[in-house]
């Protein structure tokens, strides 16, 4: 009854798969699609996060570069004007205007090549020492400034390297998490495929066992039937006629009747063949007779034509001779004329 109901249902008969299995497969595909969508959303969110981190790092680098540029410009405007340079006095256009005569009492003037003051030696040694101290202090200030600038650049580079390292670590953690999720998804997919394969295998085995049972039942039915056992040549039904489904072969009487019919057909064919041979012989003799008559008629027609042609030739000769004689007589009469 279950097999009949399955055969009556077109979907089950054509598809061969229960709706529960199809529903589970659809549910599995839906879960896989949702997992893929969630994975894509996570990847998109990770990409947006990485993009934001990189944009923040680039913005910090641009801000640092702008601050350095502004600091350089401010320092140049505050400390690197042409009036503040040490060599500006060598090219000052107003130096001659501000120049005054040397005053021995004024400590701002140095010794002159044209004047010699009493305290020249002592003052020059002290000024030389003071100049050396100032030069050493200036050089020390420059060295310290250079060291501070290098330390600041190293600190900025270290900060940039630390942030780049942090971004790389974040990216590495995201990639590791992504790879782990991919591996987990693949493992789940493989497990689901194995489960589906096992279910399909069990269903196939059950179907095969059912088909084998039906085949064995059909084989047993056919082997045990009277039609295979050839118990009857032609089983007679209730109507008194042979049953079509149980008909096996002819009876001896029917087979002998067929042989007799075949013999009568052979005799009829031989007699018909002999009659055809006789008719062909008669037709051939008639054809020969007709050919002989037609040949004689044709010969007579040719003879008569030749005879008519000979009479025509004789008549033409006679007429020609008569015309020739008439022409000769006319010529004689013509030449015989005497005026």
Topology summary:
Layout: H1 2-8, H2 10-15, H3 19-79, H4 120-223, H5 226-229, E1 234-236, E2 242-247, H6 252-336
Antiparallel strand pairs: 1-2
Subcellular location: Cytoplasm, Cytoskeleton, Flagellum axoneme
Biased composition (Basic and acidic residues): 86-101
Pfam families: RIB43A
Question: What would you note in describing this structure?
Answer:
- It is built from six helices and two strands, in the order αααααββα.
- It has helices at residues 2-8, 10-15, 19-79, 120-223, 226-229, 252-336; strands at residues 234-236, 242-247.
- A two-stranded antiparallel ribbon has the order 1-2.
- The radius of gyration is 70 Å and the shape is elongated.
Q: Termini distance?
A: 150 Å
Taken together, the total number of domains comes to 2
Percent of residues in beta strands?
under 5%
How many individual β-strands?
2
Rough shape?
Answer: elongated
How large is the count of helical segments?
A: 6
Q: Summarize the helix and strand pattern as letters.
A: HHHHHEEH
What is the helix fraction of residues, given as a range? Answer: over 70%
* Mean pLDDT, all residues: 83
Q: Name the structural class.
A: mainly alpha
């Amino acid at each position: 009854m279950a097999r009949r109901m399955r055969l009556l249902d077109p979907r089950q008969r054509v598809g061969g798969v229960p709706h529960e299995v199809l529903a589970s497969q659809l549910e599995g595909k839906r879960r896989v699609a949702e997992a893929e969508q969630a994975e894509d959303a996570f990847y998109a969110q990770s990409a947006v996060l990485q993009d934001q981190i990189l944009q923040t790092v680039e913005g910090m680098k641009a801000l640092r570069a702008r601050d350095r540029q502004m600091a350089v410009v401010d320092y140049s405007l505050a400390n690197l004007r042409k009036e503040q340079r040490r060599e500006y006095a060598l090219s000052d256009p107003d130096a001659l205007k501000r120049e005054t005569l040397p005053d021995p009492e004024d400590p701002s003037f140095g010794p002159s090549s044209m004047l010699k003051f009493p305290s020249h030696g002592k003052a020059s040694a002290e000024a030389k020492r003071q100049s050396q101290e100032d030069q050493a202090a200036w050089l020390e200030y420059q060295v310290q400034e250079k060291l501070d600038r290098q330390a600041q650049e190293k600190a900025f580079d270290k900060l940039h390297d630390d942030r780049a390292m942090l971004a790389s670590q974040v990216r590495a953690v995201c990639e590791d998490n992504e790879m782990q999720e991919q591996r987990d998804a693949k493992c789940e997919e493989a497990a689901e495929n194995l489960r589906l394969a096992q279910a399909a295998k069990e269903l196939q085995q059950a179907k095969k066992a059912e088909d084998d049972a039906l085949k064995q039942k059909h084989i047993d039915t056919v082997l045990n039937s009277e039609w295979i056992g050839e118990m009857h040549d032609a089983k007679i039904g209730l109507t008194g006629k042979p049953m079509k489904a149980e008909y096996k072969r002819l009876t001896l009487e029917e087979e002998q009747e067929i042989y007799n019919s075949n013999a009568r057909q052979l005799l009829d064919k031989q007699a018909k063949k002999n009659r055809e041979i006789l008719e062909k012989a008669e037709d051939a003799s008639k054809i020969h007779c007709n050919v002989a008559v037609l040949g004689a008629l044709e010969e007579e027609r040719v003879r008569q034509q030749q005879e008519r042609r000979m009479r025509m030739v004789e008549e033409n000769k006679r007429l020609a001779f008569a015309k020739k004689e008439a022409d000769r007589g006319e010529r004689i009469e013509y030449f015989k004329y005497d005026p």
